[in-house]
Structures are given as C-alpha cells and as structure tokens.
Amino acid sequence: MGQQMATGVFRLKGSKILEIGKGKGVENIHQISMRSGVSYPTAHRWVEKPEQVEAISLRALYGILVDGIGLSLGEVSALKVSDIFELVPDEKKGSS
Known about the structure:
With 96 residues, the protein is mainly α. The chain contains 6 helices and 2 strands, in the order E-H-H-H-H-H-H-E.
C-alpha cells in the first residue's frame, strides 16, 4: 500500500517572538500590537497561548515580525522556520 503521510502542526514560539522583540526595545505584547496594527487579542494569543492558534494570517505575521518587533527584511529572511515555529507531531499517529 501507499506510504502514510506524516501529520502534525506547526505551533508558534510566541515567547521567542517576544524575546526577539525585547532585544529590539519592545517591552510587551501591547507594544507589539500597537506597532504592528495586529489586534491585541491576536498578539496576546500568539505570544501567551500559542497552543490555541489554529491558523495565522501571513499579513499579520509580517506585521508582527517587521513592524511589531522591528526585524529588518534581511533579519526575517535569515530566520529559520524552527526559530519561530515548533513542529508538534500528531499524537493520534499510529493509533488506529
């Protein structure tokens, strides 16, 4: 039979985003929200409750990284996926 496709989800490393921002002079989620134009509830959920994030807007991600925490386009280009996301394998895999 065919090969089974791996399943899982990417989860934001919200605390890492805030940590990077603090290195650029951004002190809290409110500042990220104000600077990025992303609503405070969204920014808060991304940073404090990333396990509740089911989907992200790429426009909002750009806003948070570039405008919100102050990364240059070069710095964003240098990020690895694993810098801001963790891969969480599906727990149900193999339980059929």
